[in-house]
Amino acid sequence: MRYIPNSPEERQEMLRGLGLSSAEELFDSIPADILLREPLKTPAALSETELLERFESLAAKNAAARRPNFIGAGAYTHYAPTIVDSLIQRSEFFTAYTPYQPEISQGTLQAIFEFQTLVCQLTGMDVANASMYDGSTATAEAVLMAERVTRRSRVLVSGAVHPEYLKVAETYVSHAGIELGRLDYDEATGRTTLDDAALDKTVAAVIIQSPNFFGCVEDLKSFADKVHAAGALVVAVVTESASFGLLRSPGACGADIVVAEGQSFGVPVSFGGPYVGLFATREQYARQIPGRLAGLAYDKEGRRGFVLTLATREQHIRREKATSNICTNEGLIALAATIYMTTMGRAGLQEVAAQCAQKAAYARKAIAALGGFTLPHSAPVFNEFVVRAPVEAKGLLRRLADEHNVTGGLELSRYFPERPNDFLVCVTETNKRADIDALVKGLTETQSSKLKIQS
Amino acid sequence: MALKATPHITQNEALVFERSQTGRRGFRLPALDVDETPLDELLPAELRREDDLEGVPELSEPDVVRHFTRISTWNYNIDLGLYPLGSCTMKYNSRLNERVARIAGFANLHPLTPEEDAQGALEVMHELQQHLAEITGLPGVSLQPAAGAHGEMTGVMMIRAFLDARDGTGDAGEARRNVMLIPDSAHGTNPASAHLSGFNVKTIRSTPEGLTDLEHLRELCASGDVAGLMLTNPNTCGIFERNIREICRDIHDAGGLVYMDGANMNALVGVARPGDMGVDVIHLNLHKTFSTPHGGGGPGSGPCCSTKELEPFLPVPRVVKEGDDFRLDSECPQSVGRVKAFYGNFGMHLRALAYILTHGNDGLREATEAAVLNARYISHGLADTFDKPFDPPPMHEVLFTDKRQTRKGVHTLDIAKRLIDYGFHPMTIYFPLIVQGAMLIEPTESVGRSELQQFVEAMKEIAREAVEEPDTVLNAPHTTRIGRLDEAAAARKPVLRWRPAEKTATA
Amino acid sequence: MANVPEGLYYSKDHEWLKVERDSATVGITDHAQSSLGDVVYVELPKVGDSFSAHDTFGSVESVKAVSELFLPVAGEVTEVNESLNDEPEKVNSDPYGDGWMARVRLSNAGEVDGLLNAAEYEDYIKSEAE
């Protein structure tokens, strides 16, 4: 076998050295009647060339991967500088374990410390952890943390939070004695409405996403003021982390916990994962944070290093009383995000955000000018916006893909059946003007050909 | 005047924030190719950032590459050599699998793509599900959980949902089973996941042989409120629970279900199947058994495999095949729900499938045999030098203690640190918790005989030093860039991020 | 050998109690701090909190362990040792002095009679070690 160093002959010799005559005897402690008698019914081995052919042909069936894409909704197509992937492929990073032995894990530990700092800088918060699985589970963990901090058991979630995030939060809290309430959004603005009556003394936290699922930037500051007046925490959710380069940070708007999907920072969309959840909060809640934390430490000679710290919060020590059950997180993806943020740097992160917003504005104006298409929400947007089509969006997008080779957006009916004609368009710095023009042209032609057929 | 020489920067690389120089750029975007909208028209000023991202580093591309390359050299890694962390399965991470995961047709595929345009990705997931079902003998599979603990939570939530469907939720006054039994040797994620799923944890003792105490298990089952058992097999002492069928039968007779923690499946693939042992639901760690890279702490992937009976309770959406087409099925009313956005860590699914296909069915078994053989080799090689707390022959990992070394004040931690000086990553230490001074060693199949022997020699040499020159061991490591760090001071006054004030101090 | 001063009351959870009329000062014993190792954090109750005997009133953490603090007798917290927030290491260096944790007004002064004296506590830790 290609990955087993010892040859069959060497293994025979090793067996003999142990006084065994065959490999079967290694499994003598397993009762005979549960030992497999036949080979597994998995396929026979493929060579490297066969394997690559196999996967290339599977990949070729993913038609959408080759088309210009205007779907965002929690996963964003951004450009990753070449060095991001090349650096994370260093053996020292990708084949290392969790840094439990600090003397020989300083590379990973320092990178985590840098990641934590960058996350704090972008979110405007004091402390950040070493990562969560993704934005959705980070949101669920924030709900659990809000309950621990406030000892209150109701959490209100904006109806404009990513619907899949809400589903994940529902699963996580289903046994925690936490009741999830919903806040509506305003049809005209596309922003969350805060029902003062719902905001009573039992509310632990209010979960709000900005830019929200419809792309609208929420008025976080005045939202936070109201929530704080009721003694509850504000959990701000961000699915499009590129927006940090332009939008006022959730911390500056008063958020108490910020959770985000960090995939936008140099991580491929890769059919949904692996991504990386960002989790940040205020200093006073540091001991309630879930997951790993790297901290500064010194050795006897006074040399600076980093260690995993405040570990007593975690499952390997506090077991069922831990702040979370998380162990393995998204280390390598957090590293990719760290390298991305460092490479883009202070100016680059702002430029990416500005280009996203500019190109989205360009697309938005062009689509709004089309006969029959409208923009149902009035609130400012970052790089995503809802379009209302004169026909059912799902069919329209299908035809757009088939006839014009462009993935034009996401039909909202996937999550909101009551909105059949609406679709969500996302524009990033990777969408060239020609792609946007092709999308606009395609929408006109597809829609008019559809109208002709109908008439 | 001669300048005093300082260690090369590779030994003393600063933080990216400290290296930052105003005006440096690491990447240039293409010029904006659309008509520019005035900023105020785009977004009102009160919604825009005011801080100009102050503090975020400004570096050139060579700065960034050097920085991360330099700090990377401070890490031990599998490609350097034996990484014998027990219950972590640090096996070789194939470059071929990395290449597969980066094929553009997968990497550039958006998760919300219409199913008909993502058939290749769905086929990958479906095929992996089928192979994992065959390997575990458990036909219902979900690839959604993102890591082991996430899979545990999913598995025990499925048990909760199954029991509620069978017995009622307690609203009508019926007794609700809420006790999850967990052996005292279990990984800490087990009780944490059980708690998150609403269970009360009761701990089962281990026998002097390192096995689950069947008598104690029966005693706990007699209380009538047992919902299930979370069991690792082989357990964290590296020993196969030979009473596994009796254990499963007892739990089933008591009205509960058996969840198996698949952390140690590298001892079983192709040899024995949890489904044949009576297990109801298991999670697998693709980042252990199926060689997806650990990446310095993730990403992982923790698929759940279950019996037919439990299948309706798996997370949604599920990947199903209809005719020649693959699709996502969300119509599962009894499902525990969603545990993650989208469908799991798809990039890890690709690598794991590539692992299974590269090995072939015979190769999977061969890897298991080689892994157990290597552990047995170490067990044999160190039997005269270190105390072995349990008699049964180990499976893929072997447990020793520091009992013979403590006489001169040398403890497990010191042995682990001294091993670094011999060029090896330490084993798992102080786990399982039930064994004082535990050293859990898992060599995996990815290491050759001569390196195993070097490891055995290093351990013997450390044992000699522990007697003859204990200070050498107590002050180890001696060969690393930094020494043991003061973790107590770090926890008392935690510094969890860089702040600009520090910059002026070190500039 | 652990320091077990005379004149204090002790619990089997390794807390000490210094009683003055109807109030008592509580902390953890020298034996407890030494088996815990370097104390890095002490979670203290709030002034005004009331507890029944054997209730958890806080916790004490080392780098790799957490121990709950049990109040050996019922009472209301009148003062906590805020200085432990900045210098938790006092629990190691002076467990019976600067490392005290809370003062409580006793609900039932008679309850202290159920606790151990210095000699009994010393015997208890010896028996635990065996």
What global shape of chain A is seen?
Answer: globular
The span between the termini of chain C is: 15 Å
Strand order of the largest sheet of chain C: 1-2-3-9-8-5
How large, in whole angstroms, is the Cα Rg of chain A?
25 Å
Order of helices and strands of chain A: HHHHHEHEHEEHEEEEEHHEHEEH
Topology:
The complex is a heterotrimer of chains A (455), B (507) and C (130).
Chain A: H1 8-17, H2 48-60, H3 82-88, H4 91-94, H5 106-123, E1 127-128, H6 135-150, E2 154-158, H7 163-173, E3 179-183, E4 203-209, H8 220-229, E5 233-238, E6 257-261, E7 277-281, E8 294-298, E9 304-308, H9 315-318, H10 331-368, E10 384-388, H11 393-404, E11 410-411, E12 422-426, H12 433-454
Parallel strand pairs in A: 2-3, 2-4, 4-5, 5-6
Antiparallel strand pairs in A: 1-7, 6-7, 8-9, 10-12, 11-12
Chain B: H1 16-19, H2 39-42, H3 61-72, H4 95-101, H5 104-107, H6 119-136, E1 140-142, H7 148-167, E2 179-183, H8 189-196, E3 200-204, H9 214-221, E4 226-232, H10 244-253, E5 257-262, H11 274-277, E6 281-284, E7 304-306, E8 318-322, E9 325-329, H12 346-382, E10 398-401, H13 412-421, E11 428-429, E12 438-441, H14 449-468, H15 470-474, H16 487-492, H17 500-506
Parallel strand pairs in B: 2-3, 2-4, 4-5, 5-6
Antiparallel strand pairs in B: 1-7, 6-7, 8-9, 10-12, 11-12
Chain C: E1 9-10, E2 15-20, E3 23-28, H1 30-36, E4 39-43, E5 50-51, E6 56-62, E7 66-70, E8 75-80, H2 90-93, E9 102-106, H3 118-129
Antiparallel strand pairs in C: 1-2, 2-3, 3-9, 4-6, 5-8, 6-7, 8-9
